[in-house]
């Protein structure tokens, strides 16, 4: 048999039974306390690891959401600009753009979420007096990296520029 050393004071165990002759520690009790404490520390370590993973997943999703929102906004802006150019007017600016990742509350979800982009475009007349605004909106739905356009824009008066 090898020489046993006390886990607490480091001295060689000379005492009778499960007690250290130097510091008097009970090895039966100390061993059970030690295993209990190590188990408690392992639980805390596991909880911390799980929390770090959950927070990391949230951060990654959040950054990914910002990228998708920026891409959806670029798609909408490109469409608005082309729609204005087809109608012979200048694209001036977005007005009151709203973009939200919404989930349908009362209906079953067909996809994890959808991007709603609704807004207005200020249509400048050639003289630039900007007295009349024509509003139109569109929806850009995000689904597996594809954008489906719904609610195509309509402008109330197509002959606005012809009359001036």
Write structural notes for this entry.
By secondary structure, this protein is of the alpha+beta class. The chain has a domain at 71-163. The chain is built from 2 helices and 4 strands, in the order αββββα. It has helices at residues 27-86, 160-163, and strands spanning 90-102, 114-124, 139-143, 146-150. A two-stranded antiparallel ribbon has the order 1-2. The longest helix has 60 residues, at 27-86. The protein is rod-shaped, with a radius of gyration of 35 Å. Mean pLDDT is 55; it is low at 29-33, 90-109, 113-125 and 130-164.
Q: Would you spell out the secondary-structure blueprint of this structure?
A:
Layout: H1 27-86, E1 90-102, E2 114-124, E3 139-143, E4 146-150, H2 160-163
Antiparallel strand pairs: 1-2, 3-4
Short description:
The chain has two helices and four strands, in the order H-E-E-E-E-H. It has 164 residues and is α+β, with helices and mostly antiparallel strands. The strands form two sheets. Strands 1-2 form a two-stranded antiparallel sheet. Strands 3-4 form a two-stranded antiparallel sheet.
Task: Name some characteristics of this structure.
transmembrane; alpha+beta; 21% strand; two-stranded antiparallel ribbon; membrane; rod-shaped; two-stranded antiparallel sheet; transmembrane helix; 164 residues; disordered C terminus; 39% helix
Identify low-pLDDT runs. 29-33, 90-109, 113-125, 130-164
| Structural class computed from helices and strand pairing | alpha+beta
Mean pLDDT: 55
Alpha-carbon distance between the termini?
Answer: 108 Å
Number of strands: 4
Tell me, what's the shape? rod-shaped
Largest sheet: 2 strands, antiparallel
Strands across the major sheet, in which order?
1-2
| Proportion of strand residues | 15-25%
Residue share in helices? Answer: 25-40%
Number of helical segments with 4 or more residues: 2
Report the radius of gyration as a whole number of Å.
35 Å
SSE ordering: HEEEEH
């Amino acid at each position: 048999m090898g020489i046993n050393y006390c886990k607490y004071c480091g001295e060689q165990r000379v005492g009778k039974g499960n007690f250290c002759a130097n510091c008097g520690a009970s090895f039966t009790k100390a061993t059970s306390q030690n295993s209990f404490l190590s188990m408690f520390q392992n639980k805390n370590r596991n909880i911390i690891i799980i929390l770090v993973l959950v927070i990391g997943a949230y951060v990654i999703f959040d950054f990914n959401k910002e990228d998708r929102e920026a891409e959806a906004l670029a798609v909408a802006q490109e469409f608005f600009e082309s729609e204005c150019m087809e109608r012979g007017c200048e694209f001036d600016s977005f007005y009151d753009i709203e973009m939200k990742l919404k989930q349908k509350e009362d209906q079953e979800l067909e996809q994890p979420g959808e991007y709603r982009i609704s807004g207005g475009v200020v249509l400048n007349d050639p003289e630039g007096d900007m007295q009349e605004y024509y509003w139109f909106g569109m929806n850009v739905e995000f689904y597996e990296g594809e954008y489906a356009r719904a609610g195509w824009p309509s402008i109330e008066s197509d002959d606005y520029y012809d009359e001036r």
